[in-house]
Amino acid sequence: MTTFFIPGPLPGLNEMIAAAKGCGGRGRRYAATKARWTQTCALHALAAGLKPHSLARARFAFRWVEEHRRRNPDNVAAGGRKLIFDGLVTAKILPNDGWKEIAGWDDTFEVGDRPGVHVTVEAVEVAR
């Protein structure tokens, strides 16, 4: 089991949708935001000691820390979770982020002085 922290706040679903609608609907801001955060998530996972090809399947626990309660929990988690999973695939820690690789997740939320997300990754044995 490995835990790592990604400083944030990460973009929520509403921020990602707004970025996709920008630039006349061409999504350039969305692409740039997604690329930057996907790479950030990948680097934090690698810095925590997760190795490429180290997980075939995993279960996740996300502890989301927000500065205040202005964003809804579903907005916070939906946008951030996508970026984290894509980051793990980009870092080649997970081969993909589909049904075979993601066993499930749990989300908890709190308010604190250091916004971001604590991600706990637990390898799950792959049934043969």
Describe this structure in words.
The protein is an alpha+beta fold and 128 residues long. The chain contains 3 helices and 4 strands, in the order βααβαββ. A 4-stranded mixed beta sheet has the order 1-4-2-3, with helices on one face. Helix 1 runs antiparallel to helix 2 and helix 1 crosses helix 3. The chain is globular.
Q: Please tell me how large the radius of gyration is.
A: 15 Å
CATH topology: 60s Ribosomal Protein L30, Chain: A
Average residue pLDDT: 93
**Count of separate DSSP helical elements:** 3
SS class: alpha+beta
Task: List the secondary-structure elements in sequence, H or E.
Answer: EHHEHEE
Overall number of strands? 4
Total number of distinct structural domains: 1
User: Helix share of residues?
Assistant: 25-40%
How much of the sequence lies in strands comes to 25-35%
Low-confidence stretches: none
Instruction: Tell me the overall shape.
Output: globular
CATH superfamily: Holliday junction resolvase RusA
Strands of the largest sheet, in order across it?
Answer: 1-4-2-3
> For this structure, what is the CATH class?
Alpha Beta
